[in-house]
Automatic annotation (TrEMBL):
The keyword Metal-binding does not apply. InterPro entries: SUN1-5, SUN_dom. Pfam families: Sad1_UNC. It comes from Bucorvus abyssinicus. The keyword Membrane applies. This is SUN1 protein. Keywords: Membrane, Transmembrane, Transmembrane helix. It is found in: Nucleus inner membrane. Residues 1-88 form the SUN domain. Its main location: nucleus. GO terms for cellular component: meiotic nuclear membrane microtubule tethering complex; nuclear inner membrane. GO terms for molecular function: protein-membrane adaptor activity.
Length: 88
């Protein structure tokens, strides 16, 4: 709901997966990732921010593979909200 530390959807460990099921088929043009800035972090660092991530398009949530839409790197020294264009 906001950018305060602790009000987030955290993944346990260094690897996670997320599936978003939509009501209809879409053709995305970009993805955004947002993380709190270092200035709002109680520890002064944002080591919990995502680094390398990939986005796949699936026909359904049970599909094993998918179409790779892009591989990205979140810049921890950049803006808190970062946009990544679809690469395919």
């Amino acid at each position: 709901p906001d950018m305060y530390p602790g009000n987030c959807w955290a993944f346990k460990g260094s690897l996670g997966y997320l599936v978003v099921r939509l009501s209809m088929k879409i053709y995305p043009t970009a993805f955004t990732v947002e993380h709190i800035p270092k200035t709002l972090s109680p520890s002064g660092n944002i080591s919990s921010a995502p680094r390398n991530f990939s986005v796949y398009g699936l026909d359904d949530e049970y599909q094993e593979g998918g179409k790779l839409l892009g591989q990205y790197v979140y810049d921890q020294g950049g803006e808190p909200l970062q946009m990544f264009p679809v690469m395919v």
